[in-house]
Design a protein that fits this description.
heterodimer; A: 253 residues; mainly alpha; two-stranded antiparallel ribbon; 8 helices; 67% helix; 4% strand; globular; B: 187 residues
Chain lengths: 253, 187
Amino acid sequence: MISQMAIDPMHQFQLDKLIDLKIGGLDVSFSTSSLAMMLVVAILLGILLIAVSKPKVVPGKLQSVAELGYEFIANTVRDTIGEEGMKFFPFVFTLFLLIFGINMLGMIPYFETPTAQIVVTAALAILVFLTVIVYGFIKNGVSFLKLFVPSGAPWPLYFLLIPLEIISFFVRPVTLSLRLFGNILAGHIVLKLFVMFTTTLLGLASMLSVIAIFPFTAAIAFTALEFLVAFLQAYIFAVLTCVYLNDAFHPSH
Amino acid sequence: MASETHGPEHGDAAAHGAGGIAEAFPPFDASTFASQLFWLAIAFIVLYVVLSQVILPKVGGVIEERRSKIAKDLDDASRMKAEADEALVEMEKQLAVARADARTKADQARAAIDAKISETNAEKAAEIDARLGEAEERIQEMKAAHMARVAEITSSTTAAVLAQLGVTATDAQIEASSRKSVDEVTA
């Protein structure tokens, strides 16, 4: 099993059960993925609770970081939706922080990366999608359906435009989940491959071992890139959430 | 490389048994979905509740507090600046008034002094003139007195000289001639 771990770049996405747990016949065992998610929540809440334990008008370092994150996401929400969109700020902030935290924890070797699991990203994307639909109907009633009717087009075009709008709307959770999933999955595979090349070449114990420097350098470069991707994908997810929520606030475009 | 290992891994999945949740492509292994969704829901809800109820209101509150404090300080600053500007204008006004005041006072004082000076000058000039006249008078007096004496001395001297020479002349003659010569000298 150890040797297989070393040569299979997919093995890192395999979840190991840590505690067996069943609720109503459903297998909800605590796995390495659950551990990663719980750790992320614990670390994030730990840092943030310390940061805001004694809030000061002139902030300390940790409080500055918390405020930076707050302003960053708050500005994204305000710029995309407007001031009324701030009621979804905790939602967007939670999504951003959870995805960012999971992505970053995944950068530490031997930790699971739940955002490289399609079911996790799909669940988050569907949550966003359903939130948009439910809030859209609550806020606008039936006129939320105007979302599918672009204004100002000559009426015969509607036979083409309305189906297109509907398709593009319903494809959103798919693209939203696959973008995050694919980016994190691919990044981890590439990293693993370069590290594997390096160890394999070093294991040859011949002159060829010298060229291990190339995959090693690439692994370092990709590690840096993956940190960027970890942040960027979380940010993209948050921005797109805002963009989709904006439709619920302003359905007629 | 990966395709080589996929083969044996299918067999391995059964071997893992309770130990792992193995599949050819682990992210698509449906047996882990329920567990992942369950723990994701817990993670999301816990994070959402604590963030929205505790952390974000605190952070937002302190940011708002800072914003209002800065706005208040800026307001205070601009109000104070306006006050200072006002005070400056007032000061300049008072300065101008004071300057004008000082100028008129200086002019008045100068005029007064000039008047006094010219008055004193006139007074002194008159006094000097008076005293000059007096002196002149006295000089004339003294001159006349002295001249009388000179005439007397001359006539007595002339009488003595004539007596010595044996020339006889009347006193009136002598007196007239000496007066005449004195007059010639003094004229």
